[in-house]
């Protein structure tokens, strides 16, 4: 009997010990979860982005063949430097035609302004005097019915024409004729200016100081209008661009100070400033799911300027942007 009582007490002690152990494990697990939850709620909001630089594609306004390439990738250039030349023989021929047309138009305009020469006036006067004498003589014969009306009409027409020619020689060109001649000169000047613009476009020049980061053509290659011939990366300050999900936009604001690090320089850290939060979304980063509800999560571009950058940055380099600690609720 005593043995049975002792056995029952031992079982009760074991059960109590097991329950106590389970309780202790549960309390420890709860504490760890609470600590982990707080740590999770208080972690920094870090987003991966990339270095961006201003890149300009140098396109052609003309179709033709590449005449000469004056740079190679990696060359430093100044604004106005000629990068590529397009063959311009056809354009130069058009320039010669336009200049010849201008010279002809100027000659006509000069003649209209100067009027007839003295020799031309004298010649017109002689022809008019002869026509007038003939007219007077023929009119007398008509009055005497010695000639027909048709013969007199022919002489009268010649007399009127000679008189008009003489008057025009004396008076010079009419104002509208002078204006018309001047307009021809202006039109020729416009044609020359147009051809000169084509010649200017045949030389592809750097629009700003920078580095040639791509050359897309070969000498002699046939190109079309609008074709990108080369790429220029300017010397403007680089910036960081990241994409932030719309569900995280409450953690980002314009003017906010951030920490920026680069895997290329692992032991260094720089301060950045949020300069732009795009109003237009870039793309959907997550499609509608049970986790985020019946909507697509969109991404918005955020630009960050960097202060005190003393290391070389290349377009596309990876950057890590720390927007600061997210406090738990």
TrEMBL record:
Residues 88-115 form a coiled coil. It comes from the Bacteria. Residues 56-235 form the Multidrug resistance protein MdtA-like barrel-sandwich hybrid domain. PROSITE patterns: PROKAR_LIPOPROTEIN (PS51257). This is HlyD family efflux transporter periplasmic adaptor subunit. One of its GO terms (cellular component) is plasma membrane. PANTHER family: 36 KDA ANTIGEN-RELATED, MEMBRANE PROTEIN.
């Amino acid at each position: 009997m005593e043995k049975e009582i002792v056995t029952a007490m031992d079982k009760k002690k074991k059960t109590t010990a097991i329950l106590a152990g389970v309780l202790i494990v549960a309390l420890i697990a709860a504490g760890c979860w609470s600590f982990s939850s707080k740590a999770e709620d208080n972690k920094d909001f870090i987003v991966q982005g990339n270095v961006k630089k201003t890149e300009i594609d140098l396109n052609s306004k003309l179709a033709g063949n590449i005449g000469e390439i004056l740079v190679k990738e990696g060359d430093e250039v100044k604004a106005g430097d000629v990068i590529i030349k397009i063959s311009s023989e056809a354009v130069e021929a058009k320039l010669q035609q336009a200049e010849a047309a201008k010279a002809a138009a100027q000659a006509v305009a000069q003649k209209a302004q100067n009027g007839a020469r003295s020799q031309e006036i004298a010649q017109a006067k002689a022809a008019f005097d002869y026509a007038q004498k003939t007219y007077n003589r023929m009119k007398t014969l008509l009055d005497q019915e010695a000639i027909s009306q048709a013969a007199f009409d022919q002489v009268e027409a010649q007399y009127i024409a000679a008189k008009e020619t003489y008057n025009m020689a004396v008076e010079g060109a009419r104002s509208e004729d002078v204006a018309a001649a001047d307009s021809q000169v202006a039109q020729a000047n416009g044609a020359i200016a147009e051809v000169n613009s084509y010649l200017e476009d045949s030389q592809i020049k750097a629009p700003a100081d920078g580095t040639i980061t791509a050359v897309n053509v070969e000498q002699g290659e046939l190109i079309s209008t609008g074709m990108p011939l080369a790429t220029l990366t300017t010397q403007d300050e680089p910036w960081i661009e990241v994409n932030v999900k719309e569900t995280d936009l409450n953690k980002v604001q314009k003017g906010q100070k951030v920490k920026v690090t680069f895997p290329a320089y692992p032991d260094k850290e720089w301060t950045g400033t949020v300069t732009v939060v795009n109003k237009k979304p870039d793309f959907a980063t997550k499609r509608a799911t049970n986790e985020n509800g019946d909507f697509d999560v969109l991404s918005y571009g955020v630009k960050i300027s960097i202060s005190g950058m003393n290391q070389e940055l290349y377009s596309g380099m990876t950057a890590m942007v720390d927007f600061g600690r997210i406090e738990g609720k």
